[in-house]
Amino acid sequence: MKKLIIAQVAAAAFLFIGQAVFAQGNLPQFGKDPVKDIIKHMTLEDKVKIVVGKGFSLPGLNMGSNDDTPDKIFAISGHTIPIAKFGIPSVSMADGPSGIHRWAMTAKDSANNAFSTAWPVGTLLASSWDTTLIHKVGAAFGEEIKAYGIDFILGPGANIHRNPLGGRNFEYYSEDPLISGSSAAAIINGIQSQGVGATLKHFAANNQETNRNSVNEIISERALREIYLRNFEIAVKKSQPWAIMSSYNLVNGTYTSESDDLITKILRDDWGYKGFVMTDWFGGKDAVAQMKAGNNLLMPGSPAQIKALMEAVKSGKLSEAVLDKNVEGILNTMLKTLTAKGFDYPNKADLKAHALVARMAAAESMVLLKNTGNALPAKSEVSVALFGTHGYDLIAGGTGSGDVNKPYAISLADGLANAGYKVDADLERSYKNYLSDYAAKHPKKGLLQEIMNPTPFAPEYTVDGGSAAQKADASDIAILYIGRNAGEGNDRKIDGDYKLTSKEQDLVNQVSDAFHAKHKPVIAVLNIGGVIDVTTFRDKVDAILLAWEPGEEGGNAIADVLSGKVNPSGKLATTFPESYGDVPSAKNFPGKEFPEKATTTMMGRSVPAEVTYREGIYVGYRYYNTFKVKPAYEFGYGLSYTSFSYANLALSSPAFNRKLTATVTITNTGKTAGKEVAELYLAAPKGKLDKPSEELKGFAKTRLLKPGESQTLTFTLSAKDLASFNTGQTAWVADAGKYIVKIGASSEDIKLVKSFTLSKTLVVEKDHKALAPQAAIDELKNSNR
Q1: Against a cut of 0.85, is the pTM above it?
Q2: Strand partners of residue 490
Q3: 8 Å CB contact between 558 and 600
Q4: Which of 151, 176, 270, 280 is catalytic?
Q5: For 737-751, what is each residue's pLDDT tens digit?
Q6: Is the per-residue pLDDT at 447 higher than 80?
Q7: DSSP state for residue 356 in the 8-state scheme
Q8: Of 624, 610, 759, whose CA–CA distance to 251 is shortest?
Q9: I want to staple 318 with a disulfide (CB 3.0 to 4.6 A). Which of 60, 158, 312, 712 is the partner?
Q10: Is 426 a known active-site residue?
């Protein structure tokens, strides 16, 4: 006992002396001493400053500041507050998902060519169905983030294409959670391989821009787990992003950034997430609730949030232990940053090398939707009449925070010329003069106004019928170029956006009639950020190339595919419906508003709204296939300049036991080297739960196969792949019975089928009860099961 008392006294004396030493200025230092020791010596104000950002201050736009130290990097989206006495630096965060976005650039940055590569957008990269390629883009992207001294890139976005009118669909990958999650994981792993952080967003169900800050998304637990969270789950488990950004919207009555169910129970406890969570900029309402939910960092940060948290701890409304936990989560991740390690960044990137990667990735991902009579590839010596304003003004990517400060954007006109095509000079002159005149008459608005309501693109230039006929005499082929763009703050419209405008339809009719009268081919190129109605022009053209938004090298990449330099191998990661009315969410998108409850916030007028996901799990091909609704172009569809055969489907066992592998041999049966994507769909036995007719459970892409060459692809199915989320059991359950493996070239083009059995029902995973809707949802059901 005496020894114990002596030890206790000695320990107390040591602690007292240690505290006295620290009090004299010898405080624990970040990167040298344990984070927990630093937190013990922090004041309440120190802690609050770790969990609230510096504020939002851009040229001509100051929305409150929490710290007077200069920003590390000019005019990017956010910084954290440094605390010098502990050696805690300010870390930097920049948008966006398809390249670094600065809200402004200094004259010095421009003079030093400190621009950023505009990469192909998420939807295009996902169309590659090639995670190795996406990882390569991520690694090059990470090199650039590192070169400019940025600690966190605010991307990728991995939300689901619930509806084709979603304004930010271009940022996101797919209607399918496996494609979305796998693509996000690939680019995150690539980015983080360079020692910089990726930020997976927008967590979760941020599937529309209309009323994005106030809309309550009412979704069943099963639809959430299988569709709108499964994408994030896959990305988290495969890549462990350094940060995750919570979304603006509410889910089942609670802001996501204030949801303990979402951020703690599901993300951390069920999935084992190790990084920290930050809000979207000005997201949520209640800083205290956000802290309690485990949303570590409030961005961009405001003085009001610092005051609220200080008062909450002092009053006992917020436990300081909760605050400590959030601080620890941020500091532990911050230790990984190059800023914390004292990296002396060069502020100069290898833009030429990255442009080559962007061009390659764009060309490898484009989707050939139609090719009648071998209209493509087109020999590079032919003469081309290029119609469509954006054929001369590339849409490299989306608007808002998804925009990029790129050094250039190669139009198709330039790309064709670079590839050796002869582009009609009179048409080029007319279009460029028209675009120049439009730009002079429609100058850009102020920064915030341009973010939320971008200056619209020039309407389609009017080409008279006589001109089209004249060009049909003079040119070998016609290209009809259709452009669309969208971005944050607004969803798309049906008329004049999803559908062609009357001017565009007139142009299609005039050009196709004139060139077909001369027996000359007409090719449509789609430079679009979201799905459009193809039915009004599909039968009037000979070929359709879907380029999505291909990044700065877009014109060169498109020309690579048109010429056959690159054989197209992309496939649709999102469905093109026959009509908008066929979309399963069309009747409940974007929901209903409650204008009588509107309020005014620092971001403008906020209208409470809600949207109920009555389609449940039947999103995209899950709906079209199950309910036998024929789309214009199905999920997984894409043509090639060669042909492929599928053979020798084999399963590792006739019965499932923990896992099962499937192999299939793909052979190039055509005359041109090419790559093929093989897709594995699984049909489950009839059980207690309503289920789609089949679901994508695996995909693989061959290497470049020479004519006659074969490759065997392997797919692995886990128990989770067999399971559906049973709400009553709060668990993923695989029903006993016969499962059918379907290997295909698209969701409709199934080539080979084999089955295996699961001998008894299997509870694969037990999860927390979380995010239950406040009332039952009358969801769509498959009556055939």
Answers
A1: yes
A2: 487
A3: no
A4: 280
A5: 999 999 999 999 999
A6: no
A7: H
A8: 610
A9: 312
A10: no
